[in-house]
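Priority: medium. Attachment 1 of 2:
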C-alpha cells in the first residue's frame, strides 16, 4: 500500500506526506517446530511465526522561486519487522520455506544480494538487532545550463540504522550533467557511496552499486550515456569497489566479502529504449 498527500504552499512550492506499507513474507507457521529452518533465524519453537514487513513513512519539501533552480528535501524512516526472514531467504535451507510456498513455484536457489554482517558465517541472523533506518536527502537542480537545455543536478543522501551499535551509516553523493532526449545528446553522472555492513538491508539496496555485496562497500560509479536515436540510447556504467570491514568473531560480525579483498572493477553497457 502507498499513500501520498500533497499540500501546496504556493504556486511554486509544496509539502508532501508519504507512506508505504509492504508485506515481505507469508510464513504461514502457526506453531514452530524445533526442526524448522525458522529456528536458525532466531524464532522460538512453539510460537507463531509472523510475517516480515516494512513501514516506510516520510515527508518531502519541494522549493522553487519560479526560476531555473529547484530544491528538494526528503526525510523518511524505514521500519522493518522480522528482518531476519530476509536473510533466511538467502540461505540454502531457508528459501524453500519462505519463497517457494509463498509464490507457489519452486525456485532453483536462494534470493541473491547478501552482504550484511551476520552473527555466524553464512548465518540467518543479522548482527544488527533490527533495522530502523533514518534517512535525509537534499537535491538541487537546474533545468538548463547555458543556451541549451542541459539539466544539472546534485544529490546528497545520508542514513543511519538507529538499532545497530556500530558500522550503521550509509552516505551517497551524486552529480549529473545532461540528459538524453535526442540523437547526439549525452549524459554524465558521477556517484560515490559508502554503505556499512549494518546500515541497510543488502537485499533491498541498490544492486548496481554493489558487486557481490550490497553493503560493506565503498564505490565510485561513473556513467556516460549517448543518444543514438530519439528512442534509443547507449548507456555505459563503470564501478570501482572497495570492501570496508573484515569479520570479527568477538563482535559476532561475519561478512561474505571482507576488507583486504582486491579492488573490484566492473563495466555494464546496455542499449535502452525510451518511449
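Attachment 2 of 2:
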Amino acid at each position: 500500500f502507498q499513500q501520498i498527500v500533497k499540500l501546496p504552499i504556493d504556486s511554486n512550492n509544496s509539502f508532501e506526506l508519504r507512506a508505504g506499507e509492504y508485506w515481505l513474507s507469508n510464513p504461514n507457521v502457526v506453531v514452530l517446530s524445533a526442526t524448522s529452518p525458522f529456528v536458525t533465524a532466531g524464532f522460538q519453537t512453539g510460537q507463531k511465526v509472523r510475517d516480515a514487513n516494512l513501514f516506510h513513512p516520510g515527508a518531502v519539501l519541494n522549493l522553487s522561486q519560479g526560476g531555473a533552480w529547484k530544491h528538494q528535501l526528503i526525510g523518511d524512516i524505514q521500519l522493518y519487522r522480522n528482518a531476519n526472514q530476509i536473510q533466511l531467504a538467502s540461505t540454502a535451507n531457508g528459501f524453500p520455506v519462505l519463497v517457494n510456498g509463498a509464490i507457489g513455484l519452486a525456485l532453483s536457489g536462494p534470493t541473491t544480494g547478501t552482504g550484511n554482517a551476520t552473527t555466524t558465517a553464512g548465518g540467518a541472523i543479522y548482527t544488527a538487532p533490527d533495522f530502523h533506518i533514518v534517512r535525509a536527502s537534499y537535491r538541487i537542480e537546474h533545468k538548463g545550463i547555458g543556451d541549451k537545455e542541459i539539466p544539472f543536478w546534485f544529490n546528497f543522501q545520508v542514513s543511519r540504522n538507529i538499532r545497530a551499535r556500530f558500522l550503521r551509516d550509509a552516505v551517497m553523493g551524486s552529480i549529473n550533467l545532461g540528459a538524453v532526449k535526442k540523437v547526439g545528446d549525452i549524459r554524465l553522472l558521477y556517484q560515490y557511496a559508502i554503505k556499512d555492513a549494518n546500515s541497510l538491508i543488502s537485499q533491498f539496496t541498490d544492486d548496481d552499486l554493489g558487486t557481490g555485496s550490497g553493503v560493506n562497500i565503498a564505490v565510485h560509479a561513473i556513467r556516460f550515456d549517448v543518444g543514438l536515436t530519439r528512442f534509443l540510447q547507449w548507456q555505459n556504467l563503470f564501478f570501482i569497489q572497495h570492501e570496508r570491514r573484515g569479520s570479527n568473531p568477538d563482535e559476532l560480525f561475519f561478512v561474505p566479502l571482507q576488507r583486504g579483498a582486491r579492488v573490484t572493477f566492473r563495466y555494464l553497457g546496455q542499449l535502452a529504449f525510451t518511449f
